[in-house]
Specification:
The chain is mainly α. It is 53% helix and 5% strand. The protein is elongated.
Amino acid sequence: MVVLNKIYTRTGDAGETALGDGSRRPKHDARVTAYGTVDETNAVIGVARLHADGDVDTALARIQNDLFDLGADLCRPEMDKDADAEYPPLRMAQEQVDRLEAEIDVMNKVLEPLRSFILPGGSGLAAHLHIARTVSRRAERLATELATVEAVNPVAVKYLNRLSDWCFVAARMANDNGKADVLWVPGANR
C-alpha cells in the first residue's frame, strides 16, 4: 500500500528521481520520459471523462487504472531480476491488451467503414479522446525508443498501441457513431 504523508521530499531538487527499484536517474532519462508520458496520457483521459458517461466512463476509469499499472511497469528496470525482487514488480499482462481489442471490436461493429481520414474534433468527448490518442502514441514512441537501449515489457508497448486505437474508435463513437466525424478534404484550402 502507498502512504503519502508529505508530497514534497526535496529529493528531486537536483534533477534526479527514483525509479521503482530505488535507483536514481536524471529526470530527462528515457525511462522517466516514457512513464511520465504515460502519466500525461492518464491525465488527458481524466479530462476526457468530464465529457463521458455510462459504459464509456467506466471503460475510461479502467484504462486509467491500467495506465498506473503501465507506469509502474515502466518505472521498474531490469526485468531479468523480477524473480529476485523482494516484492514482485507489477507488469502489464496480455489480458489487458486483449480487453482493449475486444472493446475495439464491439465499438467498431456499429461504425461505418471510413472512406476518408478524419480530423480530430467533433464532440467534446471525441476531441479529448483524439488528444488522448496522440499522447498515447507519443508514449508508445518513447517506450519503443527506450526498448532500443534497455529492457521494456513488450506487452506495455502493445497496450499503448491498442490504447491509441481504442481512443480513435471511441472518438468516432462519441461523434454520433461516426456520423458527425469531421472529414479531411484533401487540398480544400488551395
